[in-house]
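Example record used in the benchmark description.
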Amino acid sequence: MTTKTGVADARNLIITGVVLMLIGDLLFALNDAMGKWLVASFAVGQVLVIRSVGAFIVLGPMILRQGPMALFRVEQKGLQFIRVFMATCDVALFYAAVAYLPLADVMTFYMAGPIYIAALSHFFLGEKIGWRRWLAVLIGFAGVVIALRPSTAMLSLPSLFGLAGSFAFALSLVMSRYLRSTSDTTLVTWQTIAALITGIVLSIGHWQPATLIDWSGMLLLGIVATCAHLLITRSLKLAPASLLAPLQYTLLLWAIILGYLFFDDIPDAQIIVGAAIIVVAGLFIFHRKNLKETIPAEAVPPDGH
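Model output (structure tokens):
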């Protein structure tokens, strides 16, 4: 009976992790669209500063709940610093790229993230990936390329920003899994502080006046992004990174839906074919992953954050 209960609990944890990742991806899709709109009129540094202030609207009560001193009681400070650095590079490089490239092009680079994550999880987290899932991940990425049709600007400096940002994003997610005993609040707070500092430096000499709508948009950007980070950080503590990584492909599906709802963009046949390939590949990967995998009790922080 105890064994069956443990298996059921493990299954529930994994399913919860998957659901949180899917919701987090939706919020990130909203964040991406809002970010592109803002950096078209304002410097990346200014957007990062106000975005970080907005993030603390969400983080403030959580920090008070766990106690401010808990932010300094962290495991493996070296890895924590690297994770914060990678998360900051991810955000800054994304906005730098999307300021000059179409959102679809930048998302193409970021859709390579699951491939990086699967490889890194295999070597650093001990999450073994079978050849069938490796093949499915590669096929899924091929679907992304088919659907988004990268432009000739792929070899430009902004495209390099996108590639570097996607790799930094993948590394930050893998480290979130590795540092899963650290509370979500602590993980997201430090990366927000780093983004704030980076934004202040980058905005020197580039600060511009803005309307109330613009300020509100930047604050909302921080709120949405922080909620997405918290959901994805929690999901990585509940389910293996190699299982969650392919779910990042849903960003493409949300981009199609949001594009239709807010910009009246109707996907053509090529996008539909690419999206179908991505969905099939993702479902196959999910099917191949054994949901009966045991999740150790220490994988979930006892503080409830």
